[in-house]
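Example (one chain per record):
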Amino acid sequence: MEKMWAGRTDGKTEKAADDFNSSIRVDSRMYREDIEGSIAHASMLARQGIITPEEAAAIIGGLNEILDGISSGKIEVDNDAEDVHMFVERLLTEKIGDAGKKLHTARSRNDQVALDSRMYSRNRTKEIICSLKKLIAALCGRAEEYKSVILPGYTHLQRAQPVTFGHHLMAYAMMFLRDTDRLTDALKRVNVSPIGSCALAGTTYDTDRKYEAELLGFDGVCLNSIDGVSDRDFCVELAADIAIVMMHLSRMAEELVLWSSWEFGFISLSDGYTTGSSIMPQKKNPDMAELVRGKTGRVYGDLVALLTLLKGLPLAYNKDMQEDKENLFDAFETALACLEITTGMISTMTARPDRMRAAAGEGFINATDLADYLVGRGLPFRDAYKISGRIVAYCIENRHTLETLPLEKYREFCGRFDEKVYEAIDLDECVKRRISEGGTSVASVEKQIKAVREKLEEI
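Predicted structure:
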């Protein structure tokens, strides 16, 4: 098959070189964006009098037929084609004749692939934002359900202070909300049209780049044609933002793994998101959570691959840039799959408040409240801290908890203790008194849920 770029050379390349050069196995998933971009280009060419209205009508009609054919499966992508652009153009020319050859007027594959990549990235980014919103909504729902369930909060994976399960879940909701902000902001830099930059220097034709950009829903056009074809900042930025999404998913997946273990027993994951062992019949493995955690590494790899790809490229377009799509597409697809799975796990998990409360009753997580009690009776915090620490040490040595230690023993450490100390260290009271904005009290968690839900409605 003669190459469409034959001319300077005879267009005859080795089969191995054709296979090595071809990108259609990756970029064919941009067929819709490629065809929509070509329809807009044909409309602009006709509007500017570069092609006739009849030629534009034939081109647009043929492209719509090709789009319908590929979407329905009636047309199969030819994996022997060089790329999706050449594949569509060849089909169009076969369908409508010489008019199809005029479609490529005033553009290059360089700005065409940049256009397709931006349109595809815009669409997939919106999908990720939508999936993030579903996950955040699920977290808000479970947080409301468990807003008063007490469990230990941890630092250094050591029991630290009492918090509510709802409060803990809302911490993740805040992370994912920031992710939606990052991706929404990134869309502003994605949504700039490169079409009309041509190979790198623009064109001698009297085109209307802004009109074509408007037809495709862009906010504006790239102001420098060299930058228009060579810029892949948007790919790197999206990959970085997606890597942060995956980092957040991985942190939550790690906690799901821990919480569902026998050692913690705070939750039980739905059977629909776990597997069994091939040899140990008692096992219920959190494989989906572990895979989310594991797939985070591949998305990090996608980001590093993109940065490495671009770091030494001179301007303008280089064939190296063909390699950008596989990494970006993988980041999109991996994140979307992990978001769907994680939303399912969160929505269907069963919490075990009894185990959470039992864990909260151990580890002296109310020791800070004990110190605060003494501060309320006039002691400087550092003195109260030391006294509380000595009391904890005594309790550990003598197998007491702060709740079971007799009042007379408290008074041996400090004469300012009275019977109200037991109210001060009660776990429910400890949580209830965390009234500072963003704290773990039920009222605070309710405010957090309300604020996040309001934010979701704005996105």
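Caption: The chain has a mean pLDDT of 95.
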